[in-house]
Amino acid sequence: MQKKLIEEYKNLAKQCANTDYGDKSSVKLHNQSVDRMYEIVEAIGYELTEETPEQFCGLLDITENKTNLWAATHILDRLPIDKSIETKALSIIRQAAESDDINGMGFKIWLEDWNQRHNIG
Are 104 and 78 in contact (CB under 8 A)? Predict the structure, then answer.
């Protein structure tokens, strides 16, 4: 079992941060990176690695390359977590949703979906 998956996840977040949406190959790499990020989160969530969900949740403190934002959505979608981690992750996403750009709109929609799935609101 590897113990480098969290580092790999951070590198994948960096690749995503550097996506050139005008370049097909860059977008393809971005999509492959996101798929791999989900694989990492699921492996950690299913305890198939030496790394733990608690260690992965430490990514919520890393703002570089929006790692915390990627981790927040992946944690909420794929990891069993306690209420304090859920609150922290939702706070990160709510802050991103306040942006007036296209990403902000995407996170507003993500939050609406989250609230609907969890009967909030």
Answer: no
